[in-house]
Every structure is written in structure tokens, then in C-alpha cells.
Amino acid sequence: MKAIFTILILISNLTLFSQVDKAAGDYLLTLKTKENDLFEYKLTLNEDGTFFFHYYSNIKQGIPPEVNKYGKGKWTIENKVISFFSDKQKDFDEKHTLDFTNSKVRFVIKSPRDKTDQIIKTRLQFLDSEIFWMERIEIFKI
Hints:
- By secondary structure, this protein is an alpha+beta fold.
- The chain is built from one helix and nine strands.
- It has an eight-stranded antiparallel barrel with strand order 1-2-3-4-5-7-8-9.
- The longest helix has 22 residues, at 2-23.
- Mean pLDDT is 87; it is low at 14-18.
- Keywords: Signal.
């Protein structure tokens, strides 16, 4: 009985790690307007559970025209929902000012059971964030 229980725990841990492996990587969204304004969102999810985020905008009529914002912290995944956490003492400095605590994204990937030719790009869809301009953003895996 103990052996069966141990095997079940090992299998469940392997499935958790496989989700992390699939979600880890670089994600990018680049938007351009007719006026040649540029918005770029880049998120890196590391396999060790840390993340880095960089937002860049170049708005020709903006003051200032170029803006860079950064964030970092830790992430976890459960049931294809990724949660972000930022530690006020470790993750914030002059450069990293965005607080992703309480932000949640859905990890979207083509199901292994889907045998159709439909192309579904691996992406992260922000469901909830205290950073108002991040809600409903979808960033795609590079």
C-alpha cells in the first residue's frame, strides 16, 4: 500500500513539473498603431519559478515619448492558471517598480487530445491584475 501511495505521489509531481516546463519561456506582444506608436510587452517565465517583465512604449505625441517599466517576482501554476507574487523587500528597486502581486493569467495551449489541424498559439491571457493596463492582454510564446 505504501509503495502504491509513493508511486502516485511521484506521478502527480511529474505532471506538475511538466506544466511548469510547458509554461516556462519568453512571451511577447508587440502592437503598432497607424501613427507608428509602439507598445511592447515582454514576459520571461523561468523554470525556477521567477519571472521578469518589461513594458516599452514609444508614443510620438507622448510626454515622455519613450517609457520603460519593469517588474519581477515569483510565479506558480495550478490548473493552467499562473499566479504572480512580488516581494516588497526583494523584488522592488529603482528599476523594477511594477507590482504583479495578485495578477493571474490563463495558460492557453493546444490540447494534446486535439487532433485537428487548428493552430492554437501558446499564450498567456491576463485575467486579473492590479496593473489596470495589463487586464485582458494576451502575450504569445516566442
